[in-house]
Amino acid sequence: MIDYTHSRSAPQQRRVWRIPTLIAIGLMAWTAVDLRAQQPASDKASSQPDALRRQKQQEIQSLDRQRLLAMQQAQQERQNAPRFQFTIDPQTPLKDLLPTAPKTVKSRPVSSDDPARVPEIEFQQKAPKDLPADKILHQAALTVARIKHLNMKDKDAFIKALRDHRSDVAGLPFAMGDSCRIHGEYSKQLTRAVNLVRRSMTTNGSNTNPGSVIDVPGEPSPAAAFWERYRVNCQEEEAGVHRIDHERLELMTRARIAAVMQVLAPEAPSVRLGLVRYLASVSHCEATRALARLALFSQEEEVRLAALQGLKVRRERDYTDILQAGLRYPWPAVAGHAADAIVKLQRTDLIPDLIDVLDKPDPRAPVVKGTDAKKAYVANELVRVNHHQSCLLCHAPGNSNEVPQETLTAGVPLPSEPLGTLAAAYGKRIPDLAVRIDVTYLRQDFSLMLPVADAHPWPEMQRYDFLVRSRELTEQEVGAYREQFGTSDPSRPSPYQRAVVVALRTMTGRDAAPNAQAWRTMLEHPPKKESSNP
Predict the structure, then answer these.
(1) What is the pLDDT of residues 382-415, one digit of tens each?
(2) Which residues of 25-38 are buried (b: 16+ CB within 10 A; e: fewer)?
């Protein structure tokens, strides 16, 4: 028998920050939800549109106060919450230690550019809306205890078991072992970097969200105010680091890039334009790669153009692979952005890569994996996970004495309680419900805020993280996917081929039939040699 008894020892009472977290899916996972900056009142009479904006902002701030009070009340009730004690029989069947799987939803080929139609992966079946809050808390704590039980002999055993027993998560790009872990000084710097973002979101003791407040003409931009505070906070922190401590400065820079890219990923365009300017000011290859990802995955053209402007003065070899992979990304919008980026960056050296796309099938079409004896059809498809509901899918539990003192940990949000704001969420949390951010099994490609039906007491708009899953198809699905994406009819070019033809015409000033051979003949480009790397 294994007894999960948690004492109230001093190490376990250390201050940790509660933040909604993910997958990775990044190095840390959390989001700012509806933080507001107070706006000074104008001395002059407002025009009618400005008056409406002010009225709307006052309504938003009133809702914020109500949400904050509800969150504070919930936190107060949790401060004296008892620690749970669980005894788990070592003979318990594995299936009984895994979370209840959500109801299976038949997956269909998605050709729409609407991100809300992208298939959603859920960690477990949702709790009934009428389930008492204490039952929800108990179930969540028991889930964490079961994960820790499985991980006793193999530190990644739970994720491996979940992957092997759930077809919907089997093809997710889980990192394991050392690949999903950070250690030592970098872990410390990551904690400081996240805390720095948090402090920059706080003004005069109030939590503020730089991207969620409606801008009022003639008044300071909340996003600009955030980035100014962030700049000042960075300078103050750097003042304590000796300039010859190159190793520490390197780790600090990498941690800051990771922190802002993860925390601000779903924020408003005004915030991410500031993010682009910040990255452009950082002379580091990781900043370059971050700019390239913003150029491909940002939905707003203004953000993409700003990122491309920053890339024009960067070393090409630091981001070329991101553009090449973007051309084959199983979401046509991203491939189109990659082709457009190649044009605007005048990367004529990548013309062979553009031509090769004309030879290839649609990246979403099924491909054969394995041998004749054990052949399977696999499709690469974009999927999404709810950032706040996927903590334990993306991170290992963080409520044990084995977690180093300096490790960044985060509370697991409960569906029965209001979501806290990013800055406020670093306070009290339930000791039994925590994940460690230095262990990240999943890392997203991009994040968006999407509406969620019947979300109360959480906000309607919630963060979703998007990544690519390689899923084995059934025989029926193979036919549907082939019909949707497997056509080789020249009169029906794929969106990937259309984007490439536009790019080639723009870059060369010439035209040819929409096939690789025609363009290679006209431009005298030999076929590109296949790489030996996967």
Answers:
(1) 999 999 999 999 999 998 777 888 888 888 999 9
(2) bbbbbbbbbbbbbe
